[in-house]
């Protein structure tokens, strides 16, 4: 999808979050924000929100002189999610359709803000997520497609959430599939990198590769040959989160092949996906 | 309260809402937004968010060449609320403490987005509002103070919502109080003006005055003598909505005299009020 005018103030909002996360003082926050305003005026309106967001985020990092403001919070999210992991596995046992439940657990990692939380707060929210359906649900189609493929490409999203994804990866493996899990090549917001994948042992269950860049979502102008090949030849793709959706939904290659698994966190994405804000979805275009 | 760095991107977000409401095309929206970015850089960081928002909104109106983009939607909100009015009155009858219920009805007008809705959607939300308590509740103190006063100053907020306020005004009158209801002196967002007050017959039950300006909330630098006097001498004040809270919470004159009735719609206000985002509150500082 293309960036809209509503993305513009959202780039700035995201920059403020980054600066707050980095503990930048209020004066400097204003200074950097004002510089960033001039910078975003030059953005390509035909680019995806994910791509433009990346430019805004990396510019903010540059202006702050801090390259990974989410380092600490990513570690905390991973630790919390790892602490939850045994409970997630037990929950999975309670449901008949393991694959469907694992999809819901995986998206719950996207729904629940793991930022700075204690694990005991989360169980209620998790139950709620598991009992809430996808407002757009192509699970039957996915299940059908899955029968005819040997491998699945899994486009990951955030740290912490990656542990929830692992539950889904493990279910895919039980069904005899090979999984390639994709992380970012460098720190950008709280997105998972190779370091996170190794920290949560994703590399023990799946082949882990990076996109070859620090871009949010998928940037066709900024990817490694390895990732380009994986994207081209994968018979079936699970795409987590908004940035991946923003990056891929407009392409023919996504039709019936990429299944988007996400919580809808903005009105513009809701419009494009044909659902409502805050909905949780699993669908292909 | 003072504006924060998070207010900055919010001014721009609000401008986009205004432009969308006015049906401005996407190219012009970008153009105006970029001009506005330069404009907001000059804002006084010691001003309230309500004051700076007003400057941003009125600048947007000027750049669009449209003076009242919310005219139509305000009319719709009033019509919808007037259609609901008999049901609101019947609901009130179901509860023992009429004043407390009328406070909740009044704030429900702030909670429910009356924008473009059909009345039958709203009843459920309304019931939910009535059954949900205030997360910060100084009703007992208010009730006590009310006993010793003859009149109440009521700082209004939006169109549509003004009909819900009328229910509360009528309960105050039943208790033998005189009410002065305050609207804006000209159109700014969907705030009530004298035109709205007359349209919904608020002038039949209360004395209606304007703030003397088009500023959101209360601007001490932009008010009529009539409003300044009313504000100074009122023994008890009900203040609806965020902009009025942002304007008054820091003043000694508010302590134990101004009772803020609102839904908390942003994190910064939540912080200052000491409550959570989305909470509904009735309290004095």
Structural commentary:
The structure is a homodimer of 285-residue chains. In chain A, strand 2 (151-155), helix 8 (161-174) and strand 3 form a beta-alpha-beta unit. Chain A is globular, with a radius of gyration of 18 Å. Chain A has 285 residues and is of the alpha/beta class. The first copy, chain A, has a 7-stranded mixed sheet, sandwiched between helices. Chain A has 2 domains: 5-64, no CATH class; 71-283, Uncharacterised protein PF01937, DUF89, domain 3 (Rossmann fold, 3-Layer(aba) Sandwich). Helix content of chain A is 53%, strand content 11%. Chain A contains 12 helices and 7 strands.
From the structure above, extract its key features.
globular, 53% helix, seven-stranded mixed β-sheet, homodimer, Rossmann fold, 285 residues
Q: Compute the number of structural domains of chain A.
A: 2
Total beta strand runs of chain A: 7
Average pLDDT of chain A, rounded to a whole number, is 95
Placed side by side, the strands forming the largest sheet of chain A appear as 1-7-6-5-2-3-4
- Overall 3D shape of chain A: globular
Biggest chain contact:
A-B, 19 and 19 residues
Give me the oligomer status: homodimer
Cα Rg of chain A: 18 Å
């Amino acid at each position: 999808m293309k960036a809209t005018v509503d993305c513009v103030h959202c780039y700035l909002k995201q920059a403020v979050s980054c600066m707050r996360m980095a503990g930048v003082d209020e004066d400097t926050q204003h200074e950097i924000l004002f510089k960033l305003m001039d910078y975003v005026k030059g953005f390509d309106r035909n680019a995806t929100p994910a791509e433009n967001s990346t430019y805004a985020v990396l510019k903010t990092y540059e202006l702050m002189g801090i390259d990974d403001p989410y380092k600490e919070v990513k570690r905390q999210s991973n630790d919390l999610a790892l602490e939850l992991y045994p409970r997630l596995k037990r929950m999975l046992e309670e449901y008949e359709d393991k694959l469907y439940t694992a999809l819901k657990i995986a998206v719950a990692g996207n729904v629940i803000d793991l930022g700075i939380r204690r694990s005991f707060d989360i169980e209620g929210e998790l139950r709620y997520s598991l009992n809430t359906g996808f407002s757009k649900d192509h699970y039957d189609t996915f299940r059908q497609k899955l029968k005819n493929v040997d491998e699945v490409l899994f486009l990951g999203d955030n740290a912490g959430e990656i542990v929830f994804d692992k539950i889904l990866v493990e279910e895919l493996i039980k069904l005899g599939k090979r999984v390639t899990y994709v992380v970012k090549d460098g720190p950008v917001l709280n997105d998972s990198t190779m370091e996170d994948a190794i920290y949560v042992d994703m590399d023990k269950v799946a082949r882990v590769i990076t996109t070859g860049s620090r871009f949010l979502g998928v940037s066709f102008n900024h990817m490694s040959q390895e990732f380009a090949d994986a994207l081209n030849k994968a018979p079936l793709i699970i795409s987590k989160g908004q940035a991946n959706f923003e990056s891929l939904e407009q392409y023919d290659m996504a039709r019936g092949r990429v299944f988007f698994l996400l919580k809808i966190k903005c009105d513009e994405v809701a419009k494009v996906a044909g659902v409502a804000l805050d909905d949780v979805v699993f669908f292909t275009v």
